[in-house]
Amino acid sequence: MTVTQITLVQGDITDQQVDVVVNAANSSLLGGGGVDGAIHRRGGPDILADCRRLRASHYGKGLPTGRAVSTTAGRLPARWVVHTVGPVFLTEDRAERAGLLASCYRESLRVAVELGARSVAFPAISAGIYGWPLDDAARIALTTVADEVAGGRAGEVAEVRFVLFGAEVYGVFERVWRALESEV
Ligand code: AR6
């Protein structure tokens, strides 16, 4: 059985040599700002072409929040991009939003496992333009992935890498991760 490591790095997700890069997309799948913009810019037009095909075949009304789909990674040093749609903190239903954010991580990991990925890089989904408070976004991200790993649902994935953009986001994830580790 594959042992899955959870790692945290500060950096740009478009630099990561991993099998799967997860994109914090929006339901249109047609690109945007933040990490989504960076992935499409660096990965090139093949990613958008795949997204358009997915829209035409399955997601004419948009990819629902909390779900995930895969495309080529184009020119990124990765094999696939898994696009997921995080909840918008202020406008999503309060009772449902944390479950939806957790679902982004679970569903993205599930798609990565189905693809046979051995390494997966996640950004801090919803913690930018979608306005999720960083501490809470980090706690949901880390506990959800840790639960999936502990539950044996990480397949052949040997590394789940959180790629945190900038010292502040990295610092929060690291602090939350240490606090969670000291609880077990
Ligand atoms: N590598 C890693 N993390 C990054 C990068 C990068 N290159 N660039 C930004 N981040 P955001 P959201 C961080 O806003 O909140 C888009 O327009 C960023 O600092 O990218 O889920 C989509 O199309 C933050 O910590 O995603 C949607 O409309 C984290 O990635 C909307 O934004 C997430 O910030 C999604 O908003």
UniProtKB/TrEMBL annotation:
Residue ranges annotated for the Macro domain, each copy included: 1-181
CDD domains documented for this protein: Macro_OAADPr_deacetylase
Protein name: O-acetyl-ADP-ribose deacetylase
Organism listed in the record: Kitasatospora arboriphila
Lineage of the organism: Bacteria, Bacillati, Actinomycetota, Actinomycetes, Kitasatosporales
